[in-house]
DNA sequence: GAAATAAGTCAATGCAATTGACTTAATGAA
DNA sequence: TTCATTAAGTCAATTGCATTGACTTATTTC
């Protein structure tokens, strides 16, 4: 056939794909249920006992699962439960923010083993790249000191930074977030660390974290409403993170208010409910050292300026929640923030009553809105969770062949 | 283990799943590329020539593909292209609207073979159910007259009706759309037809149609902005229709306008840009016989009332497009409507200039907004396309085991 | 004509899940 | 105590689909 035009098609699969999927399903089941016997796994995955036995044996050999003491459950031979081995795999997560960068090392079950932080000098990647590589190196060394075989079991490096990605940019700030986007960051990090590198925006990272160890654990349809310097939504759809056609899905902060709102043209949600808007409201410089702590104090003592911002922001977010519910029909919405915990909590408390929406249904199980992780490190945690998820979670792409065979 | 608490886990897979997936990949590739040789398929799917040969032989035996005349392409043995056989499978689609119901029969490639329509009497399912079953029966009979083996190759019945689904409802209209929702429609239809039945809302159906034979053909991230009696968005995410946690994702018409808009509380997009709003604007009764044609005439002669509605609606939709782009980051947005073609076209022309959004990127290929199918039957077509898609498109769920084995 | 190139087939192999019988270890009833 | 019952888990053989490597066929190029 005409070799000129590219042929569009999905990949096929083979027994390797089958096997890979089944291994992932086992790991996923153990992650969700804590501990399960081989018989449990066989029932839950609809595979045969024998198949499960083989796979579990394999996973045990690979150091990913271990057996626990046998338990009697009535008649019949006692079962031997298995659970995940935390030290079975590790990943490093990197958060790049405006003036700070954080690195985290996690294990297979999402426990944080190392935290490290560094200030990013103004001037963008020209100066920042080395700081980041050093930070990763430092994290990696610390991890190697704590966990045996950590290097061998390192599955990748996840990176989170503010989006959106890939746009033509006409303005920039002293920290040059825009410059970071044009910088070949992934390539630099891959070359500098020798690890597989993947990028997501900070709201997605938050959602990834919530899915591994937080409120979205085991939930297939959840949206994280993330309030950072900007605002974004991290989307868990069909049990997987959804990034959109260009990795920018969920940039809810850039939604313009409707034309009839009689607002200054092109006002966006971000303008009234992000930390940036709070800093502006307070007349604070986002780069001010110790701002986070000062903010913490202000919120604690019920500073009126902060309180009035909370009222305004909560009103906007109330609408944002309704928007998310209406558009995504998730099982739950999770509020996350990189701000001080108390601020997030107060914001969370100020949002109700929620507006009527399709989420207001009689058969709900999860709450419409819940508080997510309030740790400012949760974005970095999500960054670290991504490689773990990519390596071990069941997903369509994992069954597909990635390369053709020698013979054809 | 404790049998009491249910174990959450995904299904495993086996060789059946592999084989099923690979068959679907072949069909998908032929659908997307028109015609391909076995060698083409092997390269595109990354499977071996032999595997492809076996599968194609199977598919040919099953009457799903046929070979065409061999073509010479330079050196080497000429290749034998294959294409899908339209008569390889059929499906029936049913659209239930307020006062009318439509049925369509399509073949494997989405060609419409039968159209049938009936008025729905007021009074909801009590009276309507029989009308619908008769309409389906009629469509089926006609199809059997046209296509050989149609009954044997009928893969299912797709149903489309206005959402949202599953809410507690406190008001209703004479056509009792709400009553339809509480009625065990799927069960009734499954029992009455003996077919597999699936339900989607009308915006989703439109997206399904656009994906099979329209502007979303071969595009993995697309959103249909559908203007019917209400407004909705049909979501194609990662190449599959996304329905949300409860089948209500994309109910964009129910998005409330932000609080700061100084509007009557709880105004929604639907109030100004749906056909319902147009009927109200014109003081027309939606149930008026021949309304569609009258509207057609009005639009054609540039009726000022219609024109002013178009202006208003276009302004709202301009915002709606920006909202969709910002939230889903699709490759393209497709405007669909169940109204008269000219109305849809005028609306489409009135929407630009589009608002700035993340979709406004330097590396675009598809237009940000395009006109979809303007046929009022496209919802019914989408309903019919769903069973075809479910039976033949590659998707994650298709590889998973659905039942455990005898032995275990 | 002969070499090169590509499509497609043949027969054997490989591999992961399946099958059915079997073993082990508990409970509960006689 | 004994023995049937129930359930977990193993063993060895089988199945079924993709793969492998050699081979055939048909065309172009030199």
TrEMBL record, chains A, B:
State the organism's lineage: Bacteria, Pseudomonadati, Pseudomonadota, Alphaproteobacteria, Hyphomicrobiales
Which positions fall inside the HTH marR-type domain? Answer: 28-75
| One GO MF term | DNA-binding transcription factor activity
What Pfam families does the database record attribute to this sequence? MarR_2, ROK
- Protein name as catalogued: ROK family transcriptional regulator
**InterPro entries the UniProt entry points to:** ATPase_NBD (IPR043129), HTH_MarR-typ (IPR000835), ROK (IPR000600), WH-like_DNA-bd_sf (IPR036388), WH_DNA-bd_sf (IPR036390)
Q: Which organism is it from?
A: Pararhizobium polonicum
Bias class Polar residues marks the residues at 11-20
Q: Which domain of life is it from?
A: Bacteria
Region span, Disordered = 1-22
The similarity comment for this entry is: Belongs to the ROK (NagC/XylR) family.
The protein's matches in SUPFAM superfamilies, at most eight in alphabetical order, are given as: Actin-like ATPase domain (SSF53067), Winged helix' DNA-binding domain (SSF46785)
């Amino acid at each position: 056939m005409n070799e000129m035009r590219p042929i569009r098609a999905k990949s096929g699969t083979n027994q390797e794909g089958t096997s890979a999927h089944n291994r992932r399903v086992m790991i996923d089941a153990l992650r969700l249920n804590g501990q399960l016997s081989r018989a449990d796994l066989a029932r839950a995955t609809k595979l045969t006992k024998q198949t499960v036995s083989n796979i579990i044996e394999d996973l045990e050999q690979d150091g990913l699962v271990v057996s626990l003491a046998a338990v009697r459950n009535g008649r019949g031979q006692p079962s031997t439960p298995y659970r995940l081995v935390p030290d079975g795999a590790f990943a490093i997560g990197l958060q790049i923010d405006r003036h700070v960068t954080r690195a985290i090392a996690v294990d297979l079950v999402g426990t944080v083993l190392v935290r490290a932080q560094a200030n990013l000098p103004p001037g963008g990647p020209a100066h920042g790249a080395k700081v980041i590589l050093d930070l990763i190196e430092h994290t990696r060394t610390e991890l190697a000191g704590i966990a045996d075989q950590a290097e061998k079991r390192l599955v990748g490096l996840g990176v989170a930074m503010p989006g959106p990605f890939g746009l033509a940019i006409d303005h920039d700030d002293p920290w040059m977030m825009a410059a970071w986007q044009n910088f070949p960051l992934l390539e630099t990090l891959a070359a500098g660390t020798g690890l597989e590198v993947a990028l997501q925006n900070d709201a997605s990272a938050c959602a990834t974290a919530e899915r591994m160890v937080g409120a979205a654990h085991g939930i297939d349809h959840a949206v994280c409403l993330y309030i950072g310097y900007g605002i974004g939504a991290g989307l868990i759809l069909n049990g997987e993170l959804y990034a959109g056609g260009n990795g920018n899905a969920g940039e809810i902060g850039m939604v313009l208010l409707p034309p009839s709102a009689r607002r200054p043209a092109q006002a966006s949600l971000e303008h009234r409910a992000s930390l940036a808007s709070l800093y502006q409201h307070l007349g604070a410089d986002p780069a001010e050292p110790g701002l986070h702590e000062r903010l913490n104090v202000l919120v604690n003592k019920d500073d009126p300026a902060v309180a009035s911002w909370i009222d305004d922001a909560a009103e906007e977010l109330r609408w944002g929640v309704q928007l998310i519910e209406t558009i995504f029909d998730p099982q739950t919405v999770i509020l996350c923030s990189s701000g001080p915990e108390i601020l997030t909590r107060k914001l969370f408390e100020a949002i109700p009553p929620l507006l009527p929406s399709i989420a207001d249904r009689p058969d709900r199980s999860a709450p419409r809105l819940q508080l997510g992780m309030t740790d400012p490190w949760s974005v970095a945690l999500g960054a670290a969770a991504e490689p773990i998820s990519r390596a071990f979670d069941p997903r369509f792409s994992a069954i597909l062949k990635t390369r053709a065979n020698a013979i054809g």
